[in-house]
Design goal:
This protein has about 450 residues and is an alpha+beta fold. It has 15 helices and eight strands. The protein folds into two domains: about 240 residues, Tetratricopeptide repeat domain (Serine Threonine Protein Phosphatase 5, Tetratricopeptide repeat), CATH 1.25.40; about 150 residues, Structural Genomics Hypothetical 15.5 Kd Protein In mrcA-pckA Intergenic Region, Chain A. Helix 3 packs antiparallel against helix 4 and helix 4 runs antiparallel to helix 5. The protein is globular and about 65 Å long. The C terminus is likely disordered.
């Protein structure tokens, strides 16, 4: 891969990390336009589809992965690794949105291609091809588990591990993660002996690849989050005759490293968070400061106040593939947000949480940890620090409808607008943010700890 192409991809990845989806996609499209061959073009399209998926734009993600599939079929053949990866990526867009029935046939087709010998001629033309092949089998296994097809899920995840072991070094992250996922699934089914055997390979990989214990724990935590998302399908599933399970009726993921014994996150008493409303231009964002003991339930209240929402709709937090929300409201598979504090999540600078409000309009927020705070810094700050632009009016139709509304506001005669819209000012922050004062002494330390309400 050419250095110029790689640099554009690295730049786009940085934008993604900052929650700047529009800039990330624009940069990936520049890479697409500057691609020199079909392999670079395929990679650029794959990255664009993944960026749309992370942004939450299902329609564009699906369309882009279908374009990937067409390119792969034309350039590499319908039995190629590239074609299988395109099918798998399209399937995972559905699977990640709990539409496993739509994902399953796409993932099954991808696996069938990779089980044949015909795909192997194309392996050298795809960077990290064996990582991608292992991903396809692991993704298919995850989908089967979500559907409660446990024996199929186990077979696929074991196949993923076998391929990883045969073709990837022991310290390869994809190999370690595949073993972690299989080990966690086996443990949840009560097959602890099998899980222990898998974990031996995991520990060798972690010791070789992760010199930093905190980095190693983050990888374990991410894998557990991926695994936990489909465990609801396991609770009522039956293993085939001959298999023994001691799983409890309400079993959930069995932590390989329990929270109470996990490596400590960086010492801190609070977090400075940036809350960015996704898929909206110009950007709407807020900066808030919260104590480390703030629960997700209290963070929801802070977000509502900071953004200017009215808390009139359902919401949920997504951390990896774990989902948290108000369990008093009807929502399938959501954990209780009142029982999880930010400190429990072992956050550090750069960590990201997703928060969605109003599933109809789909207001997705990226919550990024800008920095961790010591007690003195926490005491010196208000909860509501600063921000830019008003949040959209409730029930206005979602991000694209909102941007059309902004364009109409710029051109319309306010006297002819409905009263609710004529009063809307897209530049005004909620009243919880104090007006900026030029004379304010920013060095003064407050002695009162902010209280989360």
């Amino acid at each position: 891969m050419r250095n110029e192409f790689k640099q554009l991809c690295f730049d786009a990845e940085d934008y993604l990390a900052d929650g700047q989806f529009t800039m990330a996609i624009k940069t990936y499209r520049t890479a697409l336009l500057q691609s020199r061959d079909e392999s670079e073009k395929f990679l650029a399209l794959t990255y664009i589809g993944a960026a749309y998926d992370e942004e939450g734009n299902q329609r564009m993600a699906i369309a882009t992965f279908k374009e990937c599939r067409e390119l792969a079929e034309k350039s590499f053949g319908s039995n190629s690794v590239q074609f299988a990866v395109s099918l798998s990526n399209e399937g995972m867009v559905y699977s990640n949105r709990r539409k496993s029935e739509r994902a399953e046939p796409l993932l099954d087709a991808a696996v069938q291609i990779l089980r044949s010998a015909k795909h192997k001629s194309g392996i050298t033309s795809l960077p990290n091809a064996w990582d991608s092949i292992v991903d396809v089998f692991a993704n298919a296994g995850e989908c089967k588990a979500r559907l409660g097809k446990i024996n199929d899920a186990l077979a696929l995840m074991k196949e993923a591990c076998a391929l990883a072991k045969a073709n990837l070094p022991s310290d390869n992250q994809r190999r370690v993660q595949a073993s972690l996922e299989l080990g966690a699934l086996l443990a949840c089914l009560g097959l602890t002996h099998d899980a222990d055997e898998i974990m031996k390979d995991v520990m060798v990989g972690l010791q070789k690849s992760m010199k930093n214990p905190h980095a190693a724990f983050q990888m374990v935590q991410q894998t557990l989050a991926n695994t936990a998302s489909f465990l609801d399908g396991i609770q009522n599933a039956q293993l085939s005759p001959g298999s023994k399970s001691t799983a409890r009726e309400h079993s959930n993921v069995i932590p390989i490293v329990p929270y109470q014994n996990a490596p400590e996150s960086p010492d801190c008493e609070g977090y400075q968070l940036k809350i960015l409303l996704s898929r909206v231009q110009p950007p709407v964002w807020r900066r808030v400061v919260v104590p480390a003991g703030c629960s997700l339930s209290k963070l929801h209240t802070i977000i509502q106040k900071a953004m200017g929402w009215t808390d009139s709709h359902l919401h949920e937090f997504r951390i990896g593939r774990l989902r948290f929300g108000d369990v008093r409201q009807p929502s399938d598979g959501v954990k209780d947000e009142r029982k999880v504090a930010l400190a429990d999540l072992h956050l550090s600078a750069g960590s990201k949480i997703e928060y969605e409000y109003d599933f109809g309009d789909g207001w997705v927020h990226s919550i990024i940890v800008e920095k961790t705070l010591e007690q003195e810094e926490l005491d010196a700050s208000d909860i509501f620090v600063t921000g830019k632009r008003a949040c959209p009016p409730e029930d206005c139709g979602g991000p694209y409808a909102f941007m059309n509304l902004l364009a109409a506001l710029n051109e319309a005669d306010k006297e002819k607008l409905p009263e609710w819209l004529a009063e809307y000012d897209p530049t005004v922050l909620p009243s919880c943010f104090k007006p900026k004062s030029k004379k304010k002494d920013t060095t003064k330390i407050r002695t009162k700890t902010p209280v989360v309400r």
